[in-house]
């Protein structure tokens, strides 16, 4: 393919619309259920996380805030909503909900298995091995002390 905006669009190289996911977690001993929309991560969301990390921000909260959106693609949370505090009037998200949200984000944004594997041909052995001191001593003409 010749690289062009049209070719990239046809290949699905731009962030797709959010994906609807059903999630469950427990709060106060009761099972809670919700429908969330998970945005596909994009160049913008990745660089925002890097910026947050460089500024000492919470990159996990940044990931939740940038990826959990409503059906129109607008963020549901701010980073402050995720971590809680005096400005928000509530505490941090409970651990189970945070983990469930991160799992949903991971499911939507996963890289297919093998896509990042380095393709290379196996190297041929020279027929010698230097995995032990004894074999190294034989090659050097010195006796091993082990």
Number of strands: 3
Taken from the alpha-carbon principal axes, the silhouette is: globular
State the CATH architecture of the domain at 18-109: 2-Layer Sandwich
What is the level 1 CATH name of the domain at 18-109?
Alpha Beta
Order of helices and strands: HEEHHEHHH
Largest sheet: 3 strands, antiparallel
Contiguous uncertain segments of 5+ residues? none
Q: Share of helix among residues?
A: 25-40%
Mean pLDDT: 84
First-to-last CA distance: 59 Å
Number of DSSP helices?
Answer: 6
Give the strand content. 5-15%
Q: Per CATH, what is the topology of the domain at 18-109? A: rbstp2171
- What is the rounded Rg? 25 Å
Widest β-sheet, arrangement of strands: 1-2-3
What is the gist of this entry?
This protein has helices at residues 5-10, 43-54, 59-67, 79-83, 95-109, 133-140; strands spanning 19-27, 30-38, 68-69.
Walkthrough of the structure:
This protein has 146 residues and is of the alpha+beta class. It has a domain at 18-109: 2-Layer Sandwich (rbstp2171). Helices cover 38% and strands 14% of the residues. It is built from six helices and three strands. It has a three-stranded antiparallel beta sheet. Strand 1 (19-27) and strand 2 (30-38) form a beta hairpin. The longest helix is centred in the last third of the chain and has 15 residues, at 95-109. The radius of gyration is 25 Å and the shape is globular. The N and C termini lie far apart (59 Å).
Structural key phrases:
146 residues, alpha+beta, rbstp2171, three-stranded antiparallel sheet, globular, Phage tail assembly chaperone family protein, TAC
């Amino acid at each position: 393919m010749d690289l062009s905006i049209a070719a990239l669009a046809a290949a699905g190289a731009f962030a797709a619309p959010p994906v609807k996911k059903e999630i469950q977690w427990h709060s106060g001993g009761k099972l809670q259920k919700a429908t969330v929309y998970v945005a596909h991560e994009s160049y913008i969301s990745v660089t925002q996380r890097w910026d947050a990390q460089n500024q000492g921000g919470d990159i996990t909260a940044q990931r939740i805030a940038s990826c959990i959106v409503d059906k129109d693609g607008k963020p549901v949370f701010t980073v402050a909503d995720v971590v809680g505090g005096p400005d928000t009037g509530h505490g941090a998200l409970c651990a189970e909900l945070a983990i469930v949200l991160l799992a949903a984000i991971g499911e939507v944004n996963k890289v297919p298995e093998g896509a990042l594997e380095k393709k290379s041909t196996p190297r041929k052995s020279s027929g010698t091995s230097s995995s032990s001191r004894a074999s190294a001593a034989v090659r050097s003409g010195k006796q091993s002390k082990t």
